[in-house]
Design brief:
By secondary structure, this protein is α/β, with parallel strands linked by helices. The chain has 2 domains: 172 residues, Rossmann fold, CATH 3.40.50; 128 residues, 3-Layer(aba) Sandwich (Rossmann fold). The protein is 35% helix and 15% strand. A 6-stranded parallel sheet has the order 2-1-3-4-5-6, sandwiched between helices. Strands 9-8-7-10-11-12 form a 6-stranded parallel sheet, with helices on both faces. Helix 1 crosses helix 10 and helix 6 packs parallel to helix 12. The radius of gyration is 20 Å and the shape is globular.
């Protein structure tokens, strides 16, 4: 059976038992589902991005028909300073990678950056497929990757959102006061996050349930004043995607939080969600497709959404671009086995 390799950010690093961000699990589920639909006769092999690949794993990649890089904000303008995609970041390692021909599938740019280093530009030119279209997940990423010399990129939005076209963004009239919320340990703002928790407490007549999507999120919320002052009203969920999914499937529960893919999971299951933006991830997708999102300091916007009065319009995906990216694999001639660049 022919194989496809998926470079998967949800797989743990060498020092982890499970992913440090369960949002990556949501991304991986979406990318695998799409690839299975596109390549029903292929076996999908998942390989990690959070650790350096072994020689055996690199040989597996070379024997695959295609190699995809799935989702997440893994692109970066300065690989020497921040190497999220665990590759050999030396100049030799970047100029002569062990494999190439990687196809981006809904990837994003890590943070807002003014410049992209020569080292990073060279890496993307060497590692990414030179002819196949790459799917990036927002217009900012498209701008940065094309400025890096990658001209065969298109903005398709995030693969986790490809099933959301036409989805409403206004909260339905509440049948329950239950709210699931998230915070982000690596984008801390005690003042703003305390205010967010206070607003949620004001608008929740049922349970206020915290989902620790990140491995250090529990430690962070336990440091907040509003959590301690209202400990009897806040439930901390187990850090299990299955438990989170159960809440997301309950149409009576809504989501408000700083974790992008926590909100997208609720939308995937037909629920109501508002994403609170703490960086470029949700904000850029919001600009492109009307993803329901507001800035963290927009407390009035959060209140209005919770009251069912804030409507962003229906989610509008770039369907021609998504179909363009998918359709290229129908006629794409199967390449020979990879030899890499070494």
């Amino acid at each position: 059976m022919p194989m496809i390799a998926l470079l998967d950010p949800s797989l743990p690093s060498e020092n982890e038992i499970e992913s440090d961000n369960l949002g990556d699990v949501i991304i991986a589920e979406a990318t695998k589902k799409i690839l299975a639909e596109l390549f029903p006769a292929h076996e999908i092999i998942s390989l990690p991005t959070k650790r350096t690949l072994s020689g055996k794993e690199i040989n597996t990649i070379r024997s695959c028909t295609h190699v995809f890089l799935g989702g997440t904000n893994i692109l970066n303008g300065d690989l020497k300073a921040y190497n999220q995609w665990k590759m050999n970041a030396s100049f030799v390692g970047i100029a002569y990678p062990k494999f190439d021909g990687v196809i981006a599938m809904g990837v994003g740019w890590r943070i807002y950056q003014e410049q992209t280093t020569v080292r990073s530009k060279l890496f993307y030119k060497r590692i990414l497929h030179r002819k196949v279209y790459h799917a990036v997940r927002d217009q900012y990423t498209y701008k940065r990757i094309t400025e890096s010399g990658i001209r065969n990129a298109i903005n398709t939005s995030c693969p986790t959102a490809w099933c959301l076209n036409g989805r409403r963004t206004r909260r339905r009239l509440p049948t329950s006061g239950d709210i699931v919320f998230t915070l982000t340990d690596y984008r801390q703002s005690e003042g703003q996050d305390n205010k967010l928790v206070r607003v949620l407490l004001e608008h929740s007549t049922g349970k206020l349930v915290f989902f620790p999507q990140g491995s250090k999120d529990v430690e962070y919320i336990e440091s907040l004043k509003e959590f301690h002052n209202n400990r009897g009203r806040i439930i901390v969920m187990n850090r299990k995607i299955s438990e989170f999914n159960n809440f997301a499937r309950d149409s009576r529960v809504v989501y408000v939080g700083t974790r992008l893919h926590g909100g997208i999971r609720f939308l995937q299951f037909g629920g109501d969600a508002l994403i609170v933006c703490v960086d470029n991830r949700a904000m850029e997708i919001h600009k492109d497709i009307r993803l329901p999102a507001v800035a963290r300091d927009d407390l009035d916007g959060i209140r209005e959404w919770l009251r069912g009065k804030l409507d962003f319009g229906e989610i509008a995906l770039p369907l021609p671009q998504i179909n363009q990216w998918k359709s290229q694999f129908i006629s794409l001639e199967r390449p020979s086995k990879r030899s890499g660049c070494d």
